[in-house]
Amino acid sequence: MSKIAQRIVVVGAGAWGTALANVIARAGRTVTLFARDSATAGTMAASGESPRLPGVPIDHRVAIASLSEGQLDGDAILIAVPAQTLRSIASALARTVAAGTPVVSCAKGIERITRRFMTEIIAECLPEAVPAILSGPSFAVDVARGLPTAVTLAAADETVAQMLTRSLGSATFRPYHSIDVRGVEIGGAAKNVLAIAAGIVTGRNLGASAAAALTTRGFAELMRFGKAYEAQPETLTGLSGLGDLILTCTSPQSRNFSLGLALGQGHDLDEAQRSGHLAEGAFTAAVLVDMARARKVEMPIAAAVAAVLDGTLAIDAAIEALLTRPLRAEG
């Protein structure tokens, strides 16, 4: 395999896909950003920015095309679409991806119906591709503007993971390679659910001490879940686990935190979701809890979030239930 992927394709022209296209251009690679339709591609080419990142210019070296018109031709493909959309997009690419091409999911979630992780979906839909996952503490607007960011990029084959990090890395975007694919996927999926809980705590004005406790105990849940699904502890304490959890549990820039914040302030779920920005944790919560129960993993915070989202538990009742849990040793 080549030491560098010189031609890279990004599928998905939302905020994250646009940010990654800018990253790739800064790394000196040839990059094509594919929007889902020709109208969106034309609008972006004319305006020089993504509607999802207003005011942030798309690097002039980024070529913009439409999936309905263009042919994917790259040494590596990054798919930057929501987790619940990945299967349909990957299936649509089945005839255009050459055998042996690394295909990197840039979504953080678990497919609801199948309980599949992102690389499992890629393996099912594109059996001749090489699945990989990119995740970590990163806001699209920061990455697009070239602010310093570090993430984790994992593939089962370490050679592939190293090649991809060399291909994407630059002075301000630092990917660290890993072979713990499952650990990276678990960190990204679980932290979204826990960030909703952190937002609820802030929205209810429970104070900084409560927020710190929530984040810490939430991380304990993430670690227990990760252990049950064979993630490596060092991955969960790294960028794609603890690092991403800290970021998303402390900033309104996080869509999941913002969703929780709105819920904590008394808005119902429909009102809280009217911003138009997708919060992956809202789709992941129930399946995360189901998977935890299947392996007898205790996740009371995640379970409370899932119950609040499906309307079976009021927020104040959820908080009271967490505060009145039996006292025991920390762990």
Characterization of this structure:
The chain is 48% helix and 13% strand. The chain is built from 15 helices and eight strands. Helix 3 (86-92) runs parallel beside helix 4 (118-125), helix 7 runs parallel beside helix 11 and helix 13 packs across helix 14 (300-309). Helix 3 (86-92) links the parallel strand 4 and strand 5 (102-105). By secondary structure, it is of the alpha/beta class. Strands 3-2-1-4-5-6-7-8 form an eight-stranded mixed β-sheet, sandwiched between helices.
Please outline what is shown here.
The protein is α/β, with parallel strands linked by helices.
Mean pLDDT: 94
Question: Looking across the biggest beta sheet, what order are the strands in?
Answer: 3-2-1-4-5-6-7-8
Q: Structural class from helices and strands? A: alpha/beta
Strand proportion, as a percent range, falls in 5-15%
Sheet with the most strands? 8 strands, mixed
Q: Pick out the low-confidence regions.
A: none
**Tally of individual helices:** 15
Helix and strand sequence = EHEHEEHEHEHEHEHHHHHHHHH
Rg from Cα: 19 Å
- Which term fits the overall shape? globular
Compute the separation of the termini in Å: 44 Å
Helical content, roughly?
Answer: 40-55%
User: Count the strands?
Assistant: 8
